[in-house]
Amino acid sequence: MSDPILRRNFKRVVLKLSGEALREPGSEDNISPEIVEQMAEQIKLAHQAGIEIGVVVGGGNFWRGVSASNRGMERATADYMGMLATVMNSLALQSILEDMGVPTRVQTAIEMKNVAEPFIRRVAMRHLELGRVVIFGAGTGNPFFSTDTTAALRASEIGADVVLKATKVDGVYDCDPRENEGAKRYEQVSFQECIEKRLQVLDSTAFSLCRDNSKPIIVFDMMAGDNIRKALIGEPVGTLVTAE
Predict the structure, then answer these.
(1) Distance between CA atoms of residues 131 and 91, nearest Å
(2) Across residues 14-24, what is the average pLDDT?
(3) Which of 50, 75, 78, 81 satisfies CB 3.0 to 4.6 Å to 65 for a cystine?
(4) Confidence category of residue 28, pLDDT binned at 50, 70, 90
(5) Is the pLDDT of residue 26 over 50?
(6) Rg of the chain, C-alpha, whole Å
(7) Is residue 16 pLDDT above 60, yes or no?
(8) How far is CA 81 from CA 77, 93, 177, in A?
(9) In this structure, are residues 125 and 158 in contact, taking their beta carbons and an 8 Å threshold?
(10) What are phi and psi of 71, to 5 degrees?
(11) Which is nearest to 147 in space by CA: 65, 40, 237, 29?
(12) Are the beta carbons of 98 and 88 closer than 8 angstroms?
C-alpha cells in the first residue's frame, strides 16, 4: 500500500484533544492544571520544532450535549452548552501555553468579543504563519455536530496536512480491544477499508469530511509517554488513515 505521507513530514496540523482527558480520574475538578500543563509542554516542544499547530478541545469534562439530550433536554440547547464548555477548556490551555512562552490565540465559532477572537479562516492561517498556536473553541458554532467534526472542518479550511486524534486507545482496531483480547490494531488503513470493515475512526460526519478532502487522520494514545509531541512532529504513533 503506497503512502504519500509515510515520512510524516508535517508543516501544519490540527490536534483534537478530548475534554474528558483534562480531568484527573476520580477528581471532582473539571480541569486538572497538571494534566493541561503536561499536554501544553508537549505542544510547546512541537511548536519549537517549527510545526504550525491548530488545536480543537472537546468539552466532555464539563458537559456532553448528547447525554443531556438523552435525559430530556432540548438537543440544540444542550449542544450550545457543550460549545461553551469547549471554550472554557480552550482558555485553560491558552493560559498555560502563554505562561510557557508560546504565543496563542483562541478563536471561537460563537462570537464572544471579551473572551476570544471570532473564527476567521484567513486570520487563523495568518496566526499560524506567524508562529502562533491557534485553539478553535465553540465547535462549528452549530448544534448536532461534534468536536471531531470541528477538527475535520478546521483542518480542511486551513489546509492542515493531517488531523491528529488523541484518544485513550493506541490506534484503530478491527474490534473493541477492551472486550476482545485478540483485537488487531492497524498501523495503516485506507478510508475505503474503514468503511468496508466498519472501523471506528471518527464520527461519520468528521470521517466523511476527511475522506472527501483526502485529509489523513492519525489516531493515537494521548496518555502514553510523550505521544502528543511525537504525533505533532511526525514520529510514527497510533494508526494512520489515508486515502490510499
Answers:
(1) 18
(2) 90
(3) 78
(4) confident
(5) yes
(6) 17
(7) yes
(8) 6, 19, 32
(9) yes
(10) -95, 10
(11) 65
(12) no
Digit-coded pLDDT (tens) for 35-45: 999 999 999 99
Residue 199 dihedral angles phi and psi, to the nearest 5° = -85, 135
Residue 179 CB coordination number (10 Å): 7
Q: State how far the Cα of 17 lies from the Cα of 48, in Å rounded to an integer.
A: 20
Between CA 166 and CA 79 the distance in angstroms is 22
The pLDDT value given to residue 9: 83
User: For residue 3, what pLDDT is reported?
Assistant: 46
The fold of 12-165+225-235 is Carbamate kinase (3.40.1160)
Quick one: which of 102, 4, 94, 123 has its CA closest to 50?
102
Domain boundaries, the chain: 12-165+225-235
Q: How confident is the model at residue 25 (pLDDT cuts 50, 70, 90)?
A: confident
- CA-to-CA separations, 146 to 36, 86, 90, 126, in angstroms, rounded: 21, 11, 16, 26
H/E segment holding residue 140: none
Q: What percent of the chain has pLDDT over 70?
A: 94
**Residue 119 gets which letter from DSSP?**
P
Which amino acid is it at 243?
A
CB-CB neighbours of 176 under 10 Å = 10
In the block, residue with C-alpha cell 488523541: 166
> What's the rounded mean pLDDT across residues 153-174?
94
Query: Residue 152's pLDDT is what?
Result: 96
In degrees and rounded to multiples of 5, residue 192 shows phi and psi of -65, -40
DSSP assigned state of 15:
E
